[in-house]
Amino acid sequence: MRIAIGGISHETNTFAQGLTSLEDFKRQGGFPGLLVGDEIIEHLRGKNIDTGGFIDAAEAIGFELVPLIWTFAQPSGIVQQEAYEELINLLTQRLEQAKPVDGVLLDLHGAMVTEELEDAEENILDRVRAVVGPDIPIVATLDLHANITPAMAAVADTLVGYDTYPHVDCAERGEEAARLIADTVEGRVHPTTGYRQIDMLLGPPKQCTLISPMRDAFDFVRELEQRPGILDITLSGGFPFADIRHAGASVVVNADDAPALAQKTADEVADYMWQHREEFRLELTPVRQAIDDAIAAERGPVVLADGSDNPGGGAPCDGTVMLRELIDANASRAVVAHICDPGAVAEAVAAGVGSDITLTIGGKTDSLHGDPLTVSGHVRLISDGIYHNQGPMMTNMPVHLGRTVVFVIGGVEVLLTERRAQPFDRQCLYSVAIDPSERLIIGLKSAVHFRADYAHVARKIVDLDTPGIHNPDVTRYEYKRLRRPIWPLDE
User: Are β-strands 138-142 and 158-161 bridged in parallel, bridged antiparallel, or unpaired?
Assistant: First the structure.
């Protein structure tokens, strides 16, 4: 049995400035950028990502993998059409050369938007289908924030989405998808699909599966997965920072040769979500209030989640609002991870460790995340910005922030970096000699993923109300293409 594997992955924030280029897919620092052929197996074996699960399952079951291409770009603005065309052409050309294959496994995201395509994943599936024909099974894995469209559900034989946010089950879902395609090829199962779009737009904190209400929703999903004939249920919270028609929550059910059962079960999950919609209303805390509460408590660590400037959702990661408030509050034992500002890093590196200098930090990408902040401080440390995730999410994957400076402003340490990356793993701090357990306040440019590695050490976690293109309150955005009505924009 020969199974082709590949992937083109991007989470597109259509409110972000600028376009995502081919270089953004290729240039990922420590993260693999564009991998071709056997490079995929070499770099992704043993990693807690979807394709790592494909590889593990193939080796356990004993089928042959035919690696095509795999590429990933940090979440950002709309993808250049030219860049997308080059990547999809490379994928399909290698697939054509690899034929005959018995199936295709795709590692996708589900929320990629290009200059010409609102639903890039459906286009990927269509073009792969055009190469292999109608009878070869195509199975794709998807992020929990996928905006799953009716067309995606129709063209793929099976869609398998994450069950967790933070995404700690990537390899597990990849392995599940690989086992499903093997069972399909060998005739042990005959997947049929039920699909339902849910007219709900959910902010990221309420999609977190570690806490209610999303945890309860997935408990319900797991109950339904025990039904005879049900192969898999994907409940997607959707990516609300994409102004496209089909943004939002959805459910896909795969059943064994039972389309009516699949659709009935999809309807039940969708109805459950709608009946519990009021539980998904969002509450955010003003920044100064969160800081003052943490200082008054005198016991930490208190994690402040600046989700609005989350690079993991396309934000620039150079917002200054949280840092400014920490400085104004005379906070001590506080750290901010991180502010991406290559210019400030260059100045600090030129000054050298031990220097007292004045820098203008952040606020240089746009005017939406706070103004540039001119501050005097001390250069405590300069590092290469390289570490490996050791927590439960994307375990063993390398991260390269570029040159990284620990700049101390009074009682606040801020990490200045050359590259954007979501600081969801504590190694981001340990790698620059900061022990998070010894800090009172930890400000993170992250919405939810940090909970995987911080939840058990944090005394308290607070979702901040800061400005930016990833603010969790979806009612603050001006949508022009989104279908209406949709909750909570329309009651």
Answer: parallel
